[in-house]
Specification:
Layout: H1 11-29, H2 33-59, H3 63-80, H4 86-89, H5 94-136
Helix pairs in contact: 1-3, 1-5, 2-3, 2-5, 3-5
């Protein structure tokens, strides 16, 4: 962690801060089928491959993958002071690496859920609009 003083976060505050950080990315990606699919798969990728391998993979992929990595990095940087760059992660002490990895996984799951909720909300809004048109006829 950076040497800045950080207020300890309880789980509720942590979740609130994560939503504040990730909601703009979820809103920007909502409706982008390719981005939604990548965000949906990200938690599994992190669980299977670990944070360092996932970061290496995303750093070398296309712009959409790097955008995904940037969203996670904003979260880890905003909450722990750690950016997600492979060369930096490789040098972290094990305990700190695990903390960053855990937070990145939480952020990936939250981002996936936010996008899913937005997608469902969009479907419900469309369905309600169709129902209102049918009843007006």
């Amino acid at each position: 962690m950076k040497s800045q003083d950080r207020t300890p976060l309880n789980e509720q505050t942590l979740a609130q801060r994560m939503v504040e950080i990730l909601l703009p990315e979820a809103a920007n990606s909502s409706g982008d089928v390719d981005a939604e699919r990548k965000y949906e798969r990200l938690p599994d990728l992190l669980r299977r491959s670990g944070l360092l391998q996932t970061v290496l993979f995303l750093e070398r992929k296309d712009e959409a993958d790097r955008r995904l990595l940037q969203a996670l990095s904003r979260c880890t940087e905003g909450l722990l002071g750690e950016t997600l760059r492979a060369e930096k992660l490789a040098k972290l002490p094990v305990e700190q690496y695990w903390m960053v990895e855990r937070l990145a996984l939480q952020a990936a799951v939250l981002l996936s859920r936010l996008l899913k909720a937005m997608k469902e909300d969009g479907k419900n809004s469309e369905g309600a609009g169709e129902h209102e048109r049918e009843s007006a006829e």
